Q: What sequence folds into this?
């Protein structure tokens, strides 16, 4: 985990209100670097992020599917496996929520 940004708290700091919203930023530099070595554009997507938004009595989780990263389909077989592993990580994290 690189960072957890409480966006509602940041909004409150400037006199605005926002429902509970937290951005989680996480990843593994060793793995992400391998993707960035293959394609510079993937650097815009890394580290990966998960946005948690309060919706009444539950939390909505938003993220970008790694399969939708720019040029994801053009990565090597090893790069494709990393993308699949990232997608599986999201599913694992969401299952734990």
A:
């Amino acid at each position: 985990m690189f960072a957890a940004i409480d966006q509602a708290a940041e909004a409150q700091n400037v006199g605005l209100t926002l429902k509970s919203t937290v951005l989680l930023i996480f990843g593994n530099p060793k793995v992400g670097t391998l993707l960035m070595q293959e394609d510079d554009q993937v650097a815009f997507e890394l580290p990966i992020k998960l946005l948690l938004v309060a919706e009444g009595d539950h939390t909505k989780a938003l993220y970008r599917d790694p399969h939708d990263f720019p040029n994801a389909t053009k990565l090597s077989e090893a790069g494709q496996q990393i993308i699949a592993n990232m997608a599986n990580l999201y599913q694992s994290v969401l299952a734990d929520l």
User: Anything to note?
Assistant: The chain has a mean pLDDT of 94.
